[in-house]
């Protein structure tokens, strides 16, 4: 049983940390729950969801307990994984941290700076570890590629595009489950964190951002980085199917480097849990923690402010 103030995952005390999942939607079913169930270094113990019948079904599928109250799940767990819309995730993450649970967060952490700040502050106050699941930073070979590029210098510019066809302009179904928050917030908030999660560690923090709109929900970001490099990112969930795709290119004194293709998202989620457990065990914050999630929210919120203006 956890107590507030941070739960230990020291091998001598808890060789297999207990992990609970909040959320029962398609991503929870396809990625989060299977990855947690398959993880060799922890025990997947329970599920809570806003739809009790869906929570019960997901719990049965993995032979774990269904919880009617998230606080009861927090009390039984060392780690809480989130598969919830960002503005539902944020206040529950604050409560989980206060209960002493380490946080495996989804992106974006929140869609307001106030909420993202509250999550980062709660993790710091209660001395719990946190990791934000940013696919490109945990999938292979992209995670290794990003790490390799951070060792280079002399960057000049970069361009990224993440064009999804979840809500294509012709109005035909995009083959993606209904997601009200994605439809409302668009590609800026859904796929923007992915692009920034690569650009920032390689080129440095964003020191200036300019945002403009294109067709559909397209947003183009023009960024200046601490290294002096400039980058652009074109983001959308409303691209025509024939135009959909993901790419990122870096250019500098050492040449041109392109983001490789990746797969195995459940495996990447397992590696995110590995990173969280390592941070909890060592006390060393992970570079992809709630503080980094807050920084992403700050940048995206500034872009949104410009678009609104």
Describe this structure in words.
- α4 (86-98) runs parallel beside α5 (113-125), α5 (113-125) packs antiparallel against α10 (290-308) and α8 crosses α10 (290-308).
- The protein has helices at 26-38, 52-62, 70-76, 86-98, 113-125, 142-150, 180-190, 192-203, 265-282, 290-308; strands at residues 18-22, 43-48, 65-67, 79-82, 102-106, 130-133, 155-163, 206-213, 219-225, 230-236, 245-252, 255-258.
- The chain is 41% helix and 23% strand.
- It has 2 domains: 18-134 and 266-287, Rossmann fold, CATH 3.40.50; 142-262, Dihydrodipicolinate Reductase, domain 2 (2-Layer Sandwich), CATH 3.30.360.10.
- The model has no long low-confidence stretch (mean pLDDT 93).
- The protein is α/β, with parallel strands linked by helices.
How many whole angstroms does the radius of gyration measure? 19 Å
The number of domains is: 2
Q: Show unreliable segments.
A: none
The portion of residues forming beta strands comes to 15-25%
How is the biggest beta sheet arranged? 6 strands, parallel
CATH C-level of the largest domain: Alpha Beta
| Count of distinct strands | 12
The CATH homology group name of the largest domain:
NAD(P)-binding Rossmann-like Domain
CATH architecture descriptor name of the largest domain: 3-Layer(aba) Sandwich
CATH-derived topology of the largest domain: Rossmann fold
Instruction: Please count the helical segments.
Output: 10
Query: Looking at the structure, what is the overall shape?
Result: globular
Helix content: 40-55%
> Order of strands across the biggest sheet?
3-2-1-4-5-6
Elements, N to C (H/E): EHEHEHEHEHEHEHHEEEEEHH
